[in-house]
Design a protein that fits this description.
Layout: E1 7-8, H1 20-31, H2 36-48, H3 57-85, H4 109-112, H5 139-163, H6 167-195, H7 214-221, E2 227-229, E3 255-257, E4 264-265, H8 282-295
Parallel strand pairs: 2-3
Antiparallel strand pairs: 1-4
Helix pairs in contact: 1-3, 1-5, 2-3, 2-5, 3-6, 5-6, 6-7
The protein binds manganese (II) ion (2 copies).
One manganese (II) ion (MN) is lined by residues 36, 39, 70, 73, 176, 180.
């Protein structure tokens, strides 16, 4: 089961600089083959179908806990895309074409099928597919796949970072580079325990340190790269049998945190009248409030 909180992992800056094509690039990190939808669903199905968990408890706990973090990453990237798109169009008479400013944007779906939010599509508009999920049932094969997936996800993040300097994109990508780096190391350590092979010697792939990125360095300086969370009140505590010792890149001690990291409130998304969203007028708000009061039996 999952428990939900009205929080996202980090603060995303409000910027008066919409950039639909930057948002399209960031879509690759949401619905691309190596995006957050893929990491989430790979670990989700691997955790659902995991066999012999009683004998392989730390590996099971690892996949269970990282699944929850990936759901938070899907959430964070989607909010990031919303912030990058914010202000792309302005309200106006339909005859004045209020959506014309995005007519030549790389992706039309976020404006036509949606109302300027993130969608489960890649940077070219291809829908995310379950074909991106790999779950052989063989523990080492699945861990090896996850290690590769996290390295590939890291490469894609670095390229998107290089493609746009939009502050909302950079904030999200910089943070996720660090958290993705944690998962790379976690799966490498799990593979070492399962096989005896020191996979951490391969790290980092690509051979560029997170500290080379301004928006990542600040998190590494705070030790965000050394913490792995259980994402649960009481469960998945045996990840400390995998997440232990020191970080292969800088030698800092690794730490398991029981529970969840402290997040920030989910920002309020403003209405977009020209997209009919949410499409509720001030008078209708009053009517709805009246009906809510009546159904709750609240007296004026
Ligand atoms: Mn992720
Ligand atoms: Mn990850």
């Amino acid at each position: 089961m999952f428990k939900r909180m009205e929080e996202i992992m980090i603060e995303i800056p409000d910027v008066e600089k919409p950039d639909p094509n930057a948002a399209a690039a960031v879509q690759e990190l949401l619905g691309g083959k190596f995006g957050e939808m893929s990491t989430l669903n790979n670990y989700l199905f691997q955790s659902f179908n995991f066999r012999s968990k009683s004998k392989l408890r730390p590996f099971y706990d690892l996949v269970m806990s990282i699944t929850a973090e990936e759901l938070g990453h899907v959430e964070l990237v989607t909010h990031g895309i919303g912030k990058i798109l914010q202000g792309s169009t302005s309200p106006g008479n339909p005859d004045k074409s209020p959506l014309e400013s995005v007519k030549d944007a790389r992706l039309s779906y976020p404006f036509l099928a949606g109302a300027q939010g993130g969608m489960p599509i890649d940077s070219m508009g291809n829908p995310w597919t379950g074909a991106n999920v790999f779950n052989s049932g063989n523990l080492v094969e699945d861990l090896l796949h996850n290690f590769f997936l996290e390295c590939g996800a890291r490469t894609h993040k670095m390229k998107v970072y290089e493609m746009t300097d939009h502050p909302a994109a950079r904030a999200v990508v910089g943070f996720l580079l660090v958290r993705g780096g944690v998962h790379v190391v976690a799966y490498a350590k799990a593979l070492e325990i399962a096989t005896g092979v020191n996979v951490t010697k391969l790290i980092p792939i690509p051979s560029l340190d997170n500290r080379k990125f301004n928006e990542s360095r600040k998190y590494e300086e705070k030790g965000v790269h050394t913490k792995l969370y259980t994402w649960s009140d009481n469960d998945f505590t045996t990840i400390d049998q995998i997440w232990k010792g020191t970080h292969p890149e800088d030698g800092s001690p690794l730490e398991v945190i029981h529970g969840v990291p402290k997040g920030v409130p989910i920002p309020e998304a403003p209405p977009i009248d020209e997209e009919f969203a949410p499409g509720i007028s001030a008078a209708e708000f009053k009517e709805i409030a009246k009906r809510l009061k009546q159904s709750g039996n609240i007296k004026e």
